[in-house]
Amino acid sequence: MNRHHRWVVTFFGWGLYFSFTFAWYTLAALLPRVLEEVTMTSLATGILLGAVSAVMALTWMVMGPLVDRVGPGPAMGVGVAVLGFAAAFRGVASGFPLLFASMIVIALGGSTVTYGLPRALSSYFPADEVGTPIGIVTVGAQFGSLAAFGVMPQVSSFVGGWQPAFALSGIPAMVFAAGWLVFYERDSTAEKSSPPSVATVRRLFFQPGILALVAAGFMYLFATHSTLGWLATLLSTRGFSAKTASQLVAVLIAGQILGTLVVPALSDRVGHRAAFIGATGVSFTFGMVSFAVFSTRLLPLVGVGIVSGLALGGISPLLRVLPMELVSQDTLSTVISMIFGVGAIGGFLGPVLVGATLESTTLFAGFGILALPGVAFMIISVAFARLE
User: Fold this and answer.
1) Which listed site, 212, 351, 359, 387, has its alpha carbon 20 to 30 Å from 90?
2) Domain 3-189 in CATH 3.40.50.300
3) pLDDT tens-digit profile of 306-351?
4) CATH for 200-387?
């Protein structure tokens, strides 16, 4: 296969992930403007913000096997195109019901990317090289969220409101979906396969290596949503201005992007990928504890933010690469759906647990909850190493 062509496909894979999170987080970025014109309770707002994670948690047993059955190429192309139309449809939404329905469709379309990209790229790259392209496409998700928060509020002001901005938010998805469908070549190793039976799904789920990765996926999304959701508030409580606290979170996200690129590439060179899960656990635990200890001193926290981000960014592509060493391509999308579908439950529960802890105990306990996933990564790494 042409070496240049596979990097073209990787670029459009990056774009699919970018489009998914861009459409997803545009809602949060424009929410203050939406709430100025649309009356919603706090509960309804929370449901709207949690819709994507909830849908992915509830549908992974369907969507993962569906991607395996249809094939990752067409499933992702069509899924993201539909996602793009749903994102643009929010431009005519006038209240909670239509916005909620749009987010459900965005979740279903985006799940094809989360579950299908590792299998799609594994047909273009050998096993000892696939970590780097998976790291690249995963960075697309982080750039999508950054673009949503960094660009869309300004776009909203320029085009005259949140509805026209929503109408434009589906354009990247439509463009990248078209490019993906044009350039993705259906290879025999990534062709559609028969959907696994319920018994097969159950057997895969309880396979020790897969179960360890499901636990890691749960803790990864627990850490991601808790940290990005609460860290700025915790730092503000310790005396930093809202602006400085947000900038420190931005530093963490920058480290996350770097980690997503560097860690899988290192794992390609060094091997022993499971050991990198333990290393990210040590780094993340150190980072969260340091945020608590140095939370009144700005300069050390810049370094702490980078270290924490490197760890958080590094774990994500590893969770997409390691299943390739455990299962065949026929069930790869199903296994990825287990990891990130169950993980979505952690993404929902993490912020809730931090909030409940802060209401009943001290601020340091909140940082302690944020550090828990790092400890879990160390334990999971040891368990995984014993299985190898």
Assistant:
1) 351
2) no
3) 988 898 888 888 888 888 778 777 777 788 888 888 888 888 787 7
4) 1.20.1250.20
Domain extents in the chain: 3-189, 200-387
Candidates 132, 385, 98, 88; CA nearest to 260 is: 132
Asked whether this chain's domains 3-189 and 200-387 adopt the same fold, the reply is yes
CA angle 8, 14, 19 (to 5 degrees): 130
The one-letter amino acid at 280:
T
The model's pTM is: 0.75
Of residues 99, 111, 136, the one with CA closest to residue 9:
136
Q: How many CB atoms lie within 10 A of CB 283?
A: 23
Closest CA to 227 of 307, 148, 150: 307
The DSSP output letter for 3 is H
Give the whole-angstrom CA distance, residue 115 versus residue 286.
31
Q: How far apart are CA 30 and CA 38, in angstroms?
A: 12
Query: How does 112-142 read in b/e, with b if 16+ C-beta sit within 10 Å?
Result: bbbbbbbbbbbbbbeeeebbbbbbbbbbbbb
Output the six-digit token pair for 216: 């890691």
Burial of 269 (0-12, 13-18, 19+ CB in 10 A): exposed
Q: Are 283 and 345 in contact (CB under 8 A)?
A: no
Residue 56 near residue 340 (C-beta atoms within 8 A): yes
| pLDDT (tens digit per residue) in 353-375 | 777 777 666 667 777 888 888 88
Tokens representing residue 95 in the block: 């209240």
CB distance 30 to 165 below 8 Å: yes
